[in-house]
Amino acid sequence: MKKRVAALVTAVLAIAVAVIAYVMLSEPGEAPQSAEPKAFKCVRTVSVYAALIENPTAARALLVGGFKDFYREILEHAGLVCETSPEGEFDVVFVAGAASRRELSAARKALAPDGVWAECIDAREMKASAFKKRLEALPDECVHVWMPGEKDWVLVGRRSSARPRLEDMMDLFAREGAFADLAAARCNTLPVAFASYAGTREDMAAAFAGEDGPVEPENFVTREVAPLDWIDAGAVDADIRDGALREMRSMQIVRRIVLVGDMQAGRHDEEKSAEVWARAALRNPGDTILVERLERLSVNAQAFLKLGKAAMAARCYDTMAQVLPSDPAPVYNYGLCMQQLGETELAELAFERARELSKTTETEKSE
Known about the structure:
By secondary structure, the chain is α/β, with parallel strands linked by helices. The chain contains 15 helices and 7 strands.
């Protein structure tokens, strides 16, 4: 009997350790071909708009793959008619998740000559050599890489080198049906979306010169901002055009700052990473990788609390409060953690600070 009890206790402890390790180390979606973005809608939304930016006048979309239903609503809100059967001609083919060769072949045939082909890529367990093969496998003349999430990327290909017009891109973001989705994703302007643009297939070439290690965004984002000469901006007023392109480049620079913070977080230097993310958030709080990181911290904090790990949850909320110092929510939640840990003075200080921030926020809204 004692042996059975001991074995049961050992099994329970093993499960508990596994759960804690999973919460600490896992990331959303683990499908080998395409991520299933359950939690982070900001990434899902910008993944769709990466395709639409390259064909902003698109009217029909063909959805392919096991996770296609996660994207249908966003495409429909953008004004597109969505189908899952390759009948007729489509302006956009959106591939999300595993699909058979027959499905992909039929989708290719249904793509309009001036349409775009978009593939959601999950880079979680992908090596550079495998990513290179995916890039080279696209038969399109023009291939762009977008990185809405740390590991959730989009490859967008066009058969022709036709340049999408800047004014059409701006009109896309002004559509009434798209506004709610873009606002919820904190990506309500075209330049903010361009933070996720990494470059052409040719721009990626240098990243494959080193060892065949895991695919990491910092290895595939060039030091220099990727050129935007593939955009036709000629019909836009010069001041508006120059301002928009300048802001796009600014957002791409902020993305590089976010990735520096990610690398420091990977080295478990939470203090430096929080400082770097805070600088990035001042310039672009809607950067999707930054938003994804903050949402993951929130999810992990809640999981730690359920496991009775208030100290670890407090670390998550502390980082969030440093990155977004005007947001009362993480400060208040940090106070709750301190309360659970018996740190009543720290808890009261946090609650008071949260109240002050809430008053400031309400005042700003009323002005």
